[in-house]
Fold this protein.
Amino acid sequence: MSSTTQPGTEGKGSTATQTKIPVTVAKGDGIGPEIMDATLHILKEAGARIEIEEIEIGEKVYLRGITTGIEPSSWDSLRRTKVFLKAPITTPQGGGYQSLNVATRKTLGLYANVRPCVSYHPFVDTKYPKQNLVIVRENEEDLYAGIEYRQTDEVYQCLKLISRPGSEKIVRYAFEYARRYNRKKVTCFMKDNIMKLTDGLFHKVFDEIGTEYPDIEKEAWIVDIGAAKMADTPEAFDVLVMPNLYGDILSDIAAQIAGSVGLAGSANIGDHCAMFEAIHGSAPRRAGQNLANPSGLLLAGVQMMVHINQPDIAESVHNAWLKTLEDGIHTYDIYEEGVSKQKVGTKEFAQAVADRLGKKPEKLAPVSYNQATKKADIVSVQSTHARSAKETVGIDVYVDWKSGTAEDIGKLIEKLGTDKLPFKMLTNRGVRVYPGGLPETFCTDHWRARFLHDEMKAVTHTDIIELLNKFIEAKLDFIKTEHLCTFNGEKSFSN
Ligand code: NAD
């Protein structure tokens, strides 16, 4: 392994003085309390200048009937300290429980999820000894906007939202991160061959912002083949930036192939607050047995120390942890006969790290954070994109219907078109089925009828209401409409 700089945060907070920085801590569920105690023990022994405010989140709170898993008063602590060290929590299955992680990220505006995935060869078994990459995942948008509907008996929908300001923020963060940590390349993963508008925007923003970073190599991959390449040759990548869902999946893969999900920490960074956590869950089956590996949370704690501008502590803890790995002192999940020297529990591992504070690894490359934190803070920049001139030119009307063939409903709906909004086509799951459909096409009860003038002339809301009134008269159950628009004269909807 080759790295000298690592994990990432933008180094906010006050300058390194003796002033204690308040930090909100949640011990979570399952293995959470054990790995948090281990992490806090090491940070304390390292002399971390932090003042802990503990809050309760997770299963107990959910089971008290608070579906968000967090008490309203806990938000006050988070808004006051602006720094959150969080152990994993258990989300009870079923019921109306919401994901606390998603809620926290969105409520606090934590737009960047930064996950370094590094291998520690030959001390932790991995097929990829040279892997040293960082995934910068967009954290607030995409399919995680959480907007879903059951629209008909057969069809459900989840909205994928990608915004220009959201894409600009995350892409700029990735480039700034690369500069700050002397990384050489930023790779964008997306799927704009299929999602030409949403992922197309992400790719376009990557190309635009990339021009501001001539010193950094840039490349873009379609996510499927990019993921295959990453799983095969992770050393070909350096910093990767991608929309939320791809980042969620790929960062778990990247962490796992580096050696273990138990070894990776992550930072969730916003303009006002930041949250630090292990990437793994609460592993309830391992709870209370002094077995769990605290490394993921500890490395998240290292990221936090950089963030609150205590790089000396971050460096000392990270190097002591590397030395512990190198000395073969391993928890059960990474213990391997012949490589490891001693199998230890959570507490003993934490003590072994504490005992090595001040030491550096001899074979693994030691880390250094001082240079990184001397550079300017990464701040998100407001989008300067000028608003485009928008015109509504047509409408897609979605209909719930199960009384016949595509030809039957097509004939019914085509008659409803008006002079301003003539009928164009009928699709089912995106496939044109009328006019000119094929009998082989499988159809559900979810139909999309498009009304659009060939010359894409502007229409008014009144024109649209007039058309929808005809649906009511025809007793057709329309369940959703989507306006078709042009922006600066450019067609801005899929076929
Ligand atoms: P998990 O990450 O808890 O466990 C997956 C596997 O990894 C298990 O075999 C577990 O024993 C092992 N493992 C995980 N962390 C380990 C550690 N530190 N040391 C040693 N072994 C470790 O995933 P899961 O079982 O799918 O989820 C369990 C619970 O955690 C669920 O309720 C889930 O909702 C929750 N979860 C929470 C978070 C979070 O709070 N950030 C993230 C993921 C899952």
